[in-house]
């Protein structure tokens, strides 16, 4: 199933042309026109490594069902029998494509630089399934040159070995393990319908507490209620919050943004970041913004919802990915077509949500 | 003058169907062995010997009449070692090692011994010995201090891409043929177990080249009868961190000669 095709990516008026990579026996290197810099995999220490599991990158629902109902041997038999059939895209697919679009624009501006996104496929699958995954990567013309098929072993050791900046998986247990090891990670869910997202601008949306920031304020709210929370935030307005598991990822996004700014691309920067928080601008928002400032981090848009549901605003923003520590918000976002990921961090995971309170109060803390 | 002695403590394997592997004296007993004592301490090959024994046990559990088992022989590679024959036999029995035969050879004739005994894989701690054996058509693997921390319940074999894509590098036609033969045996042994809980595990690590060269390697191995369990395509990233996670008992690469640390 070799495929060879020319794909044209139009970015800010420039045409970047790349050949699709061919399969197996043919020469594997992507051939490029002389005007474009050659694409080679950056060294892990220079690049921003995003590790994705096979089930978030591709849709493997059918196969997953076979595994659950008929066991591992049948699952593998099925995969091998369908080895040349590519999977269709999963929830992380558009995110990965957007990362590639950013890379293309970065290479245009900085041809020699290795400060790029590097997507690594890290899966628990056995290598028997590997050929089908490689065929699928080639079919969709994804630039993924690194992968780990751990054959059932935990991928956590490998995440650390590859200097992983972000790990996305459909398995909450692995995500939890990764977070414990200090690796930014989130469980990705598939929305029932996926709204269209930009092919040229990467948009990443973050919740605030227990995602970018620590869960200290959440703890106050859960223990003492909303009023105490507002008091506490006001009193500590100038004391930066501690950092949360995804602060590092926002940081690396910021570094890349600055590289675009340096070349005059501030207004139409190919990376855009959003803070979508249930904090309200009037009362508790100041501390969030001041914390970001104290970290030297910028966020392009900060949306203080004062307790309003996040789904509708995310539907307007159309991020490629949205991180939240509360399943309530993750589900709400997914219902409206946003690819939402759960960050199982902090007090929200241990204490059941006070949903009843949300109905009563005008603004709640998330 | 080579003398071959059977270890009467160990049941002899079927000569035609067993997979013969040879381990040198220096690997089995370690360098401190030369201190005049009659019972030697065990060296870096211990985990390997234990795991080969484990694989045999599991194979026999599946089929008590199984003949495709690992047959381990101990070989001496210099005249001093050759003279320690009785201590060697004593020590082997003392530790209860599943070594079926001893080949007491010298530096001049150990390779001949390997060939005569149909050895399919030669384990040594000496790089030169490995190179020489490979040139004479006997695939070899190096053992070192890293071998000590390998698991004893599962034999972990690691393939590097050079062996598959450029099998002629540093090896002869004869050793290439033997290597493929050995791989076929390994593959058959592996097939006897399911995906989980297998006493054998095959891992492929490709350091250079992208996913397509890894793809080629997977297919080539498959055509030789080896279904790989784990695969890592490093795309230029350094191999060290992965190797320390994987803890293979030995590497097969470049015509099956050197284990790179």
UniProtKB/TrEMBL annotation, chain A:
<dbReference type="Pfam" id="PF06189">
    <property type="entry name" value="5-nucleotidase"/>
</dbReference>
<dbReference type="GO" id="GO:0008253">
    <property type="term" value="F:5'-nucleotidase activity"/>
</dbReference>
<protein>
    <submittedName>
        <fullName>5'-nucleotidase, cytosolic IA</fullName>
    </submittedName>
</protein>
<dbReference type="GO" id="GO:0000287">
    <property type="term" value="F:magnesium ion binding"/>
</dbReference>
<dbReference type="GO" id="GO:0000166">
    <property type="term" value="F:nucleotide binding"/>
</dbReference>
<feature type="compositionally biased region" description="Polar residues">
    <location>
        <begin position="1"/>
        <end position="25"/>
    </location>
</feature>
<feature type="region of interest" description="Disordered">
    <location>
        <begin position="1"/>
        <end position="45"/>
    </location>
</feature>
<dbReference type="GO" id="GO:0005829">
    <property type="term" value="C:cytosol"/>
</dbReference>
<dbReference type="GO" id="GO:0046085">
    <property type="term" value="P:adenosine metabolic process"/>
</dbReference>
<dbReference type="GO" id="GO:0009117">
    <property type="term" value="P:nucleotide metabolic process"/>
</dbReference>
<dbReference type="InterPro" id="IPR010394">
    <property type="entry name" value="5-nucleotidase"/>
</dbReference>
UniProtKB/TrEMBL annotation, chain B:
<protein>
    <submittedName>
        <fullName>Cytosolic 5'-nucleotidase 1A-like</fullName>
    </submittedName>
</protein>
<dbReference type="GO" id="GO:0009117">
    <property type="term" value="P:nucleotide metabolic process"/>
</dbReference>
<dbReference type="GO" id="GO:0000287">
    <property type="term" value="F:magnesium ion binding"/>
</dbReference>
<dbReference type="GO" id="GO:0000166">
    <property type="term" value="F:nucleotide binding"/>
</dbReference>
<dbReference type="GO" id="GO:0008253">
    <property type="term" value="F:5'-nucleotidase activity"/>
</dbReference>
<dbReference type="Pfam" id="PF06189">
    <property type="entry name" value="5-nucleotidase"/>
</dbReference>
<dbReference type="GO" id="GO:0005829">
    <property type="term" value="C:cytosol"/>
</dbReference>
<dbReference type="GO" id="GO:0046085">
    <property type="term" value="P:adenosine metabolic process"/>
</dbReference>
<dbReference type="InterPro" id="IPR010394">
    <property type="entry name" value="5-nucleotidase"/>
</dbReference>
């Amino acid at each position: 199933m070799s495929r060879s095709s020319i794909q044209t990516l139009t970015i800010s008026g420039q045409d970047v042309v790349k050949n699709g990579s061919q399969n197996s026996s043919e020469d594997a290197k992507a051939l490029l026109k002389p005007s474009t810099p050659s694409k080679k995999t950056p060294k892990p220490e220079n690049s921003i490594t995003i590790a994705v599991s096979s089930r978030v990158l591709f849709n493997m629902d059918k196969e997953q069902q076979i595994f659950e109902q008929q066991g591992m041997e049948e699952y593998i038999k099925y995969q091998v029998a369908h080895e040349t059939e590519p999977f269709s895209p999963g929830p992380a697919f558009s995110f990965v494509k957007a990362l590639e679009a950013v890379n293309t624009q970065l290479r245009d501006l900085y041809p020699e630089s290795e400060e790029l996104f590097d997507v690594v496929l890290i899966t628990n699958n056995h290598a028997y399934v590997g050929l089908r995954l490689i065929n699928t990567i080639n079919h969709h013309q994804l630039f993924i040159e690194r992968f780990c098929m751990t054959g059932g072993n935990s991928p956590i050791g490998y995440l650390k070995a590859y200097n992983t900046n972000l790990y996305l998986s459909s398995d909450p247990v692995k995500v939890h393990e990764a977070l414990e090891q200090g690796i930014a990670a989130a469980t990705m869910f598939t929305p029932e319908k996926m709204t269209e997202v930009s092919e040229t601008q990467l948009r990443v949306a973050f919740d605030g507490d227990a995602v970018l920031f620590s869960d200290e304020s959440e703890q106050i709210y859960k223990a003492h209620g909303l009023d105490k929370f507002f008091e506490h935030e006001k009193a500590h307005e100038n004391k930066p919050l501690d950092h949360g598991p995804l602060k590092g990822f926002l940081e690396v996004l910021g570094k890349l943004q600055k590289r675009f700014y340096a070349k005059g691309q501030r207004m139409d920067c190919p990376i855009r970041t959003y803070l979508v928080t249930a904090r309200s601008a009037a009362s508790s928002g100041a501390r969030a913004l001041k914390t970001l400032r104290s970290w030297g981090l910028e966020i392009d848009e900060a949306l203080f919802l004062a307790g309003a549901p996040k789904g509708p605003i995310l539907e307007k923003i159309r991020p490629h990915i949205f991180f939240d520590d509360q399943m309530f918000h993750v589900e709400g976002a997914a219902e409206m077509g946003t690819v939402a990921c759960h960050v199982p961090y902090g007090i929200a995971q241990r204490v059941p949500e006070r949903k009843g309170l949300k109905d009563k109060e005008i603004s709640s803390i998330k | 003058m080579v003398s071959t002695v059977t270890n009467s403590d160990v049941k002899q394997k079927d000569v035609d169907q067993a997979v013969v592997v040879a381990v040198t004296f220096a690997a089995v007993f370690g360098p401190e062995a030369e201190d005049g004592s009659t019972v030697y301490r065990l060296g870096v090959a211990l985990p390997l010997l234990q795991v080969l024994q484990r694989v045999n046990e599991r194979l026999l559990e599946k089929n008590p009449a199984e003949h495709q088992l690992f047959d381990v022989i101990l070989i001496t590679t210099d005249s001093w070692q050759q003279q320690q024959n009785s201590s060697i036999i004593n020590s082997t029995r003392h530790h209860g090692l599943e070594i079926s035969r001893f080949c007491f050879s010298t530096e001049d004739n150990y390779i001949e011994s390997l060939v005569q005994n149909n050895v399919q894989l030669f384990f040594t701690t000496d790089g030169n010995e490995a190179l020489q054996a490979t040139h004479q058509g006997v695939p070899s693997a190096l053992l070192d201090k890293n071998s000590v921390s390998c698991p004893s319940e599962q034999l972990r074999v690691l393939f590097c891409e050079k062996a598959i894509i450029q099998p002629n590098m540093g090896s002869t036609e004869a050793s290439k043929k033997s290597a493929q033969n050995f791989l076929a045996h390994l593959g058959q042994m592996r097939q006897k177990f399911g995906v989980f809980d297998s006493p054998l595990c095959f891992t492929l690590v490709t350091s250079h080249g992208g996913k397509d060269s890894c793809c080629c390697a997977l297919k080539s191995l498959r055509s030789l009868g080896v279904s790989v369990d784990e695969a890592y395509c490093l795309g230029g990233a350094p191999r060290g961190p992965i190797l320390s996670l994987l803890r293979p008992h030995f590497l097969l690469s470049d015509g099956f000669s050197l284990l790179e640390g």
